[in-house]
Amino acid sequence: MTSYAYQIVNVFAESRFGGNPLAVFTDARGLSDEDMQRIACQFNLSETVFLLPDEYDEAVAALRIFTPSYELPFAGHPTIGSAAVLHRLFDPGEHFSLRTQAGLIPIRVQEEVFHLTAVAATQRVANLAAEDTAAMLGLAVSDIAGEAMWVNAGSEQLLIRLASREAVLAAQPDHALFVKNATLRPGRSIAYLWFEESGVVSVRLFFEQQGAIIEDPGTGSACANLGGWCVLNGLGALQWRVEQGAVMNRPNVLYLTVDAQQRVHVGGKVSKMGEGVFELPVV
What we know:
The chain folds into two domains: 2-110 and 269-280, Diaminopimelate Epimerase, Chain A, domain 1, CATH 3.10.310; 122-262, Diaminopimelate Epimerase, Chain A, domain 1, CATH 3.10.310. Helices cover 21% and strands 42% of the residues. The chain has helices spanning 33-43, 76-90, 130-137, 165-170, 175-181, 220-232; strands spanning 2-11, 20-25, 48-52, 61-66, 71-72, 95-100, 103-110, 113-117, 122-125, 149-152, 157-161, 183-185, 188-197, 200-209, 212-216, 238-244, 252-258, 264-268, 270-280. Strand 10 (149-152) and strand 11 (157-161) form a beta hairpin.
């Protein structure tokens, strides 16, 4: 039997049971890719992250990020959650870096908020008519405020701007239409709905998994994509409070900043909820 320590944290949490839960394995040396995937399936959280030494000695750790079904090159809440775990374990200072498969991610800690700096984003038109977008989400055409765009600041997702907070909260994706219109590649269907007013953004993220449409309570990669969309569409410097998880009764609060140099920063608080040891049988 081989033992691996892990921690459970809630990322983007500003209330007792708010945030998005995450399992962080603090030393994954000795685990195979298959082991990591099966452990992520065992935990059945939206993501489980495995920390390894950075082979280039440029980062405090290298991250392997797995959903129950596949590995991700980058995800925001695992990166920020890992930063908090490493900061508490090793105190690497207020500025350090983590390595993901999407690149080196700078981390800044300020007043208990962990901020990541996203990689520069790209975008491409989704070629979805407003009528098709509305039908996919169970909304009226008048609820669609902009053209759907695929945006990639480390993890490509479909961004859809809606006309009101009420429309964001009312969305009920149709499974067949969602798979038809929001699929990046087979097995990866995902869409992020957003509405901003007076610096407060209401968002929801949906993805398809094992035949069902799942909602994510808090999504840092999508927040980074939203910041990338803002940069690419000329919105300039901004500071937004991003609220997610309301429909799930799982409130998440993210802080999105686009600075004067057009860099995108995503931040949030992290609460430690528990820790344990995972026993992996030797066969």
